[in-house]
Amino acid sequence: MTNEAFPAEDGNFKRGAFKPVAIIIGILLVGGAIALAVLGVHGEAQVLTKEQVNKEVLEIQLLPKAEQIPRWRKWAEADNEHRLQQEAYVHLAWAKDKQSIPSITKGLASVDHGVRGTAAMALVDFGSPDADSAKPALLKALAEGDSSDKPQICWALVALKESSAFDAVLAEYRLGHLANVQRLDGFPVFDAGALASLASLDKIASLAGDESDSVRQLVATTLSRTGDAKWTDTLITLVKDKEVEVAREAAVGLGKIGNAKATQPLVDALSKADKGSREKFLQALRDGIGAPGLVLALKTVTHEKADTEKFQTKQIFDMLKELEDPRGGDALYGYIQSNPKPHWKVEAAMRMAEIGDVRAAEVLGWRMEPDPLKLYNDVDWPELRRDDNERVFAARMLADLAIIHPEKRDYLLKTAEPGVLYWVDPENKPQPHANGMRFLAVVGSQKAIPLLEKWADPKDKLPNEGAQPPFPETWATAQSALRYVGWIKDPVRGWSILEKQLHRRNKKMDVSWDSLMQGGLTIVGMTLRALGVGASDGFAQWGDPRAYDDLVKYIEDPMENEQARMEACFALSWVATDDQMKEVVKKVHDNTKTDAKGNLLRQCYLETIVHRPVPEATAGLIDLLSPSVPDIEVRHQMARAIGMGGITAAMVPSIFAKLSDINLKADAALALVLGADADTAARAIATYNDTGVSAEAIEELKDVYNKTFGYWSDRNCEKGDIARWVDNAGAIAHVKVHDQLQDWPRIILGRDLVESTEIDNGPHSMTHVQLRAKLYADAKGSNEVKRSEAISILKFIKEKGVLMALRDETGPVGEMARKAFFEVMNPKTSAESVPESPKAQKQHDPPPGFGGAPR
User: Fold this and answer.
1) Strand pairing partners for 455?
2) According to the model, what pLDDT value does residue 594 have?
């Protein structure tokens, strides 16, 4: 009797001796199936040249998916065209075209071993039960295979759960031949759990004394995943193994079992391990058990030397931060109750807040009062006395918790409001921090309203003309406070304060950049800029259409500061109705001026459309996407405005036609990649494979795509924008341009989703903590579409901890999470170059609303 299939883990362990053939196996599928044709062609000559094959592939990829399938089916049957046959297997497998399974199965008997290997991996993509009919052919091919296709055939038998093949597959595993087998898209495929599932647990356990290190590690990994106390003695033996890779996998099982008999050997192993081995043990606990395993490891921290204690404790808390496992809340809360040193108590609360556990507010609220100079000494914690970052970060986490848990408002007011009010009180802190204001606004603190309004509308006079630096902190505080006045929506004074500060400029004074550069008005001009930005953010946060006329008036006044006008355009996207958005599109359309002021106004209103796109309205911009718009950046922004909110089917043909103009190709492609469905986005990228399009053209598209993101709003999540962009990036990864699969959207988008959500980024922005909580809830919810989208996004942003938690769930979500976690832990090695992230480049300030410091 075979045991049940185990969850797909990281698979990252020793897999036997390294063999040169592994290199060949590893490259078999990189860059697409055409690469396979150079290996082991034993039979008939090819009819088509490589150039002809590429031309055929391009023609097919330019077709809608429904029209591609019949063409690929034809080539799947073409025994004398091995390159196209393999391409067909790849694309039919990606399309999950079940009708093609018999043709692919037939390929297992090809005279070309490259065709056989590709056919095997195509069947892996179909999986069981869809491809179960291919098992007899796979077993026959295994007997006839050679070093170029046998590893792929073995893995297909594993994927289809053919238990009779266990011994043969284990023999290949012993030789190290399975290490570099890859999926059709180049991702590693080896999974220890899948291999072990072909045999009973008793048979696996019987191999615990095997002379092969890799086999003993397989045993340790397999038994550890069960968490069954039955295997305690075997795991105790393995945790003492001479190979640390074996011992660390056994440690995971002992930690899962968790009884006294199992825990003590684990504690002993960790306590005795040297620095390098200890880190490996901790990594195994992190990846095998998750946060509870790491919190358990805190018991093994040595207290003999202060420096060692600090290093080992920090090492564990850093791993907890990297993992961010939602299951860690109870263990961390228990650790806090043990009354550790203040800093570690705060660290534990931070880790709880990052996973959305509202109980963290008890410690974070307490931490808002003590001054670091009084809480820490120069001997043990000199680094914590140098700044007030603990309270800054604590306030940020409290604000996130308040957004995630609106139902816990009373609890948060009780546990955290007093501490935050103390921290922002002018008697205790000269200038309040924006994070403190943010929490108080989110939680709806009535005690904070007078303070926020006082900071937003100070009694100080505006700086005089000719005033010298430094910039007055009062007005820097006012900028932040104005946003939070808009958030708290006080009907008594709030609206009038925002109106007053938006129009504070003396109408005779010019505070545009050209004017400020002439000197004399710099300080007063920057003050008015701060008030304009702050009032705009306040109106954006309030979200009331009443602000539309005020903002438009401000935007169209050329004597106001350009940055503040751009922020007003951003705010317009949050207050405008659908009908008003049509007016904004008309303003862009009717603006025929090409001078600097005309371009600025056009770009400003495009900023509005980017964040509040209405497809029926943005369709009116398509005809403006032409070489007659000389400013390239304006064209790029126009493409973003067209694509951001989604492109209707009626809009596709006219945009697609612009791909033939090399001057507009990047803009048209960007709009389609952002706004069209996955099929259309993939076809748009396929046009870059045309021989008439230079290799540099795709680099231009990468650059404008890279500069598109940086601000993520709750609206992007709710409307499904993020899910669409992730889906499109996945589809594009199956497109080849100049013989290379296009992974760059996946790399760029995934990176930006992480980097640009680290902190609050302006009105309605979404932090990573909020996004994680939202996706976790959607994945556990009953809406199948949202569940699937959530798992895709979690995989995209490499949320290991959440995926680990979800793989323990029953039903479809558990299986989806297991597969996603495996892919996160076994990333594809890609040599594709992508532009540096905007954060890393730091070459120019991001457009208002797309980035910048927390406000």
Assistant:
1) none
2) 83
Q: What angle do CA 314, 320, 326 make, to 5 degrees?
A: 155
Q: List the alpha helices (DSSP H) in 197-243.
A: 201-205, 213-226, 232-239
**Assigned token pair, 300:** 């093994």
Q: How far apart are CA 563 and CA 594, in angstroms?
A: 20
Rounded CA separation 523/468 (Å): 7
Residue tagged 């620095």 (tokens): 275
Is residue 515 classed exposed, middle or buried when 0-12, 13-18 and 19+ CB atoms within 10 A define those classes? Answer: middle
Q: Residue 144, Cα to own-chain centre: how many angstroms? A: 43
Q: How far is Cα 5 from Cα 193, in angstroms, rounded to an integer? A: 7
In the chain, the amino acid numbered 669 is: A
CA distance 282 to 533: 47
With contact defined as beta carbons under 8 Å apart, do 256 and 230 qualify?
Answer: no
Contact 233, 259 (CB under 8 A): no
For residue 212, what are the CA distances in angstroms to 235, 261, 358, 418? 17, 27, 48, 61
Task: Categorize the per-residue pLDDT at 435 as very low, low, confident or very high, splitting at 50, 70 and 90.
Answer: very high
- As a residue count, the chain comes to 855
CB 448 within 8 A of CB 488: yes
Residue 841, pLDDT score? 60
DSSP 3-state assignment of 736? strand
Closest CA to 443 of 410, 492, 394, 471: 410
d(CA 504, CA 502): 6
Q: Which two tokens stand for residue 220?
A: 């340790």
Contact 118, 33 (CB under 8 A): yes
Could you give the CA distance from residue 247 to residue 770 in angstroms, rounded to a whole number? Answer: 37
Integer Cα distance of 230 and 755 in angstroms: 44
* The model's pTM: 0.89
CB within 8 Å of 293: residues ≥ 6 apart: 252, 255, 256, 285, 286
- The rounded Cα 573 to chain-centroid distance in angstroms is 25
Q: How many CB atoms lie within 10 A of CB 323?
A: 23
Separation of alpha carbons 235 and 378, rounded Å: 45
Burial of 280 (0-12, 13-18, 19+ CB in 10 A): middle
- Residue pair 736/742 in contact (Cβ under 8 Å)? The answer is yes
d(CA 536, CA 603): 17
CB 484 within 8 A of CB 449: no
Tokens of 80: 């004398």
Q: Tokens for 95?
A: 């399309």
Among left, alpha and beta (phi > 0; psi -120 to 50; other), residue 301 is beta
The answer to whether 217 and 226 have CB atoms below 8 angstroms apart is no
Least Cα distance to 575 among 502, 633, 516, 638 occurs for 502
Q: Closest Cα partner for 772 from 751, 783, 757, 788? A: 757
CA atoms of 131 and 115, how far apart (whole Å): 17
Helical (H) or strand (E) element with 842: none
Q: Pull the structure tokens for residue 186.
A: 């180049």
pLDDT tens for each residue of 240-276: 999 999 999 999 999 999 888 988 888 888 888 888 8
What is the C-alpha radius of gyration for the chain, rounded to an integer number of angstroms?
30
Q: Which two tokens stand for residue 355?
A: 């996973």
pLDDT number for residue 840: 63
